[in-house]
Amino acid sequence: MCGITGIIGCWSDIDLSEYYVAHGCLHHRGPDDEGFVKFGEDGSGGVRLSGDNTCLELKNTAPHINTATSSSCVLGHHRLSIIDISSAGHQPMEHDGLWMVYNGEVYNYRELREELEREGYHFLSATDSEVVLKAYHHWRTDAFGRFNGMWAIAIWDERSGSLLLSRDRFGVKPLYYALSDGKLYFASEAKFFRILLDVKPHEERMQDYISACWLDHEAETMLSPVMQLRPAHYAEFRPDDNFFRATCYWFLPDDPVRLDDRDAADQFNALFDSAVDLRLRSDVPLGGLLSGGLDSSAIVSNLAHRGLIPGRGLAVFSAIFPDWKESEHDLINETLIRYPSIRAHRVIPTGERLLEDLPRLLHQVDFPIRSSAVHSQYMLYEHIRNTSDVVVLLNGQGADELFAGYQSHRLPRIGSSLQRFNFADALVESRALGKLRHSGTMAVLSAAAIDLVRHYRYRYLPHRFKLMAGELSANPLTAALAFNLTYASLPEYLRYEDRNSMSASCETRLPFLDYRLVEWAFRLEDNLKIREGRTKYIQRSAAAAYVPQRIVENPIKKGFVSPQAEWQQGVLKNWLRERIAEHNIPFLPQNLVDRFDIDPQTESQKWWRIACLAEWLNAV
Hints:
Elements: E1 2-8, H1 16-24, E2 33-39, E3 47-49, H2 56-59, E4 73-79, E5 93-95, E6 98-106, H3 109-118, H4 128-139, E7 149-157, E8 162-167, E9 176-180, E10 183-187, H5 191-196, E11 200-201, H6 203-212, E12 223-224, E13 227-228, E14 233-238, E15 243-248, H7 261-278, E16 286-289, H8 294-305, E17 314-319, H9 329-338, E18 342-347, H10 351-365, H11 373-387, E19 392-394, H12 399-403, H13 410-419, H14 423-437, H15 441-458, H16 476-488, H17 490-503, E20 507-509, H18 515-521, H19 537-543, H20 549-553, H21 564-569, H22 573-581, H23 592-598, H24 604-619
Parallel strand pairs: 16-17, 16-19, 17-18, 19-20
Antiparallel strand pairs: 1-4, 1-10, 2-3, 2-4, 5-6, 6-7, 7-8, 8-14, 9-10, 9-13, 11-12, 14-15
């Protein structure tokens, strides 16, 4: 896990000292090593440079970047050493005129290395980075379809004078870029651009955040002209003619497979075990995040059940709220009691700490946030950094988007049955949902029918909605899952995961986003995802062998939550009022504080977003 930066100057001079200052704001992403390469006027003749944080073994082998003359092209790297922690993993890494800076982990690097060795390639390190570079050399952009992992890659080709950018299928690792004054800038975090460019808030993206809490859903970010390379895309930039083109290299499948319960559970277990096993490859200590939910509980329980926890035990980290009725600490304890080899560490976030940390947190995550739960995650990683030697964490992000874990998936599930004229199944699911909502069966059926009509409208939304799903699936439930996976929720949650973990120089790995498991899940029939009101049906069935029963049977989906509503009525109230009263959001009326004083509790989430955006704008 690392941080990457670069400027391709279209053969105009780049101020390396100014670039180095901007590069330095990503130091937290890779404190173990630092390296650079600059190129001549024609983009060739790569010269290695060092920085203040270059590892001692290499520091005196290259001139310091602040002593170098200007350049027309520069690549930079911050390294967090995970696999082969020796200096052999130093970047930028070069092979046959290809210079690469890379952030992420390709977990199947050992298998790819063996394949490349059969093709005649030789390796000087045990890193996955070298495998990634030589895989690209051999297969070019077809290599991305062979990678199983998370990545953001930049490769400068000296011979062709072009830059290649690539991002993993789901956007676990970030990659931002900007085209300005004939130059292309790229970096792992948007804060890099604030130092080098005249950035301005993007009004349409701010409106999306206020009205729908949509973040990270477009290539455009909330800072103009900063863009993000979309997940599952690679892009080519040629400075000679200012050519830039992004290409999608992977799409969600839309070819359902019919399986009975036993076969589905067996296939799930085989894929999940393999996904977890690949993500155990590490040369530094590994731990886990544990909430009371099914997903994180499944990961740590799976390790314990299969005897994969080392003798010293597995350190897991949880955020709890002892005095809050919604806290999941009792469910967390279910896993700890069942598996004594799991060693628990806990943090207790508070509203006071949230107020204290918020400016720093907003700077770290780059943009406004959805809720105070993001701060709880921030505190978790801060605790990990300060109290343990754990560097790699396993977490359960992504399962809800695969196996229909959100409440919003229930109506599309019924709509899918109505679409197929399977009225008996629609009735069964409507009755189950009615009991959960304390509503009548016919009222649920009516709502599902309306939702089905809305689905057909959504099929004709612009291309941005259809990102990795190709033409949006005709199946309403599949379409809803693709929407969450590629547009509405997961991209945002992955940004929080990345920024919070990297703020503590930690790496987070997500077994549920193994692309093999994702593709398999999107081929499943609806009744293996929601059955008789039971969400994530096949995941629960498969996990019942090793996850505590109370967690498996828990019907309530909470997500990673915090007592934000209570805090907004107490410790956060004055802060909310001040930000709303003094807000500088151009498209909102100035007298909002009057409405807030009358009713601060109705639409409390929107009040939070307004205050949070105002806080963020003060720092832009």
